[in-house]
Write a structure and sequence with these properties.
Oligomer: single chain
Distance between the termini: 34 Å
Strand content: 25-35%
CATH topology: Aminopeptidase
Number of domains: 1
Strand order of the largest sheet: 1-2-3-4-5-7-6
Largest sheet: 7 strands, mixed
Shape: globular
Length: about 160
Amino acid sequence: MIVRPATPDDVPAIAAIIAAHAERGEMLARPADQIREGLGDFVVCEHEGAVVACSSLVRYSPALAEIRSLAVADGVQRNGWGSAMVQALQERAREEGITTLFALTRAGPFFERLGFARCKRESFPEKVWRDCRFCPLRERCDEEAVAVTLDAGGGRPGEGR
């Protein structure tokens, strides 16, 4: 399992993985030009020379970032690729001094197994202002917010240390 920063050569694979999930309504589509524009935020999992998973780290402030576009290719799910993506982004966030990492997701239990806690979407007005207000699903959003506090001991948002 190789987790690495995405390169321009990865854009078609990232777009295809995300598109497959978007076609089923599991996530929002991300056109190739949008992926290319934010390529520095993406990491990929590579297996036997092929990109099998992707995700991005979107920064809202020096202390707050979102895991976005987390997707695993059809046929290779449940092999740890998604967890590897989250762990890589958590490490990147820690290195950058980010203290709160969140996601809006339909896969709450997956994130909870990785130490995230459910919280209110309104806890992240930066997300609502930047992205949600333009989302075609905003009036019927079925995603839940999950977050984790990043520090030497991990933890959940709001826990004192």
